[in-house]
Amino acid sequence: MPNKAPYLMPDTTKRRFLFLLGSTRRNGNSELLARRAAGFLPAVTAQQWLFLPDYALPPFIDQRHDESYLAPTTGPEKTLLDATLAATDLVLVSPLYWYALSTPAKHYLDYWSAWLRTPNLDFRARMRGKTFWAVVAGSGPGAEAQPLQEGLQLTAAYMDMPWGGYLYGNGSRPGDVRQDVVAWQAAEGFFGPASNQG
User: How many CB atoms lie within 10 A of CB 93?
Assistant: First the structure.
């Protein structure tokens, strides 16, 4: 079931959604549920979909107390950074792995720590006001993912980003999430009123 904060939903026709796919397989249940929800956005809403394993980031090294981080100029890090800053809405899409985010999704978030400390990037200021969402699929009851949800809500609060909502679907084998009737129906209005159903 989605869990939404009580704030005024922005006009999605003027927004740019970035979907960050954190599964280690394509077309998994979390992606299917996210695409179901995105299908009800107005057709004019910009969408960008990035499969995080396609953008292999180097291992994250904590340099907070040693030296400054350098702004990326090429490669996967620059692609992800540019897409992140260009979006008005970030949707983290991940399976539930060991009661937490998948490795690609967590690795992407680790890089926020570097971008926050990159000189002249102003990452926090540029992230402020972007809406943060999560779509998660797991093979157990949704309560098992509550720590993950709470962690992402704390991340949004830390970054001064409105929390858009959280959508959880149950499924193990690819396609199983379609059998989660509650989640499949909740996806229809997850990003706001379903204005282009048909």
Answer: 30
Contacts of 17 (CB under 8 A, 6+ apart): 38, 41, 45, 46, 47, 48, 87, 88, 89, 91, 191
DSSP-derived secondary structure for 38-91: HTTS-TTSEEEEEEGGGS-PPPP---TTT-PPPPP-SHHHHHHHHHHHH-SEEE
Q: Is the pTM higher than 0.90? A: no
The token pair at 42 is 């107005």
Phi, psi (5° rounding) for residue 45?
-75, 125
- Give the distance, in angstroms, between the CA of residue 34 and the centroid of all CA atoms in the same chain: 10
SS3 169: strand
Tell me the pLDDT of the chain (198 aa) as tens digits.
555 444 445 555 589 999 999 999 999 999 999 999 999 999 999 999 999 999 989 888 777 777 777 788 789 999 999 999 999 999 999 999 999 999 999 999 999 999 999 999 999 999 999 999 999 999 988 888 999 999 999 999 999 999 999 999 999 898 999 999 999 999 999 998 543 332
Q: Mark out the alpha helices in 117-190 (DSSP H runs).
A: 123-127, 146-158, 181-186
Pairing outcome for strands 163-170 and 131-138: parallel
Residue 188 CA to residue 22 CA, distance in Å, equals 22
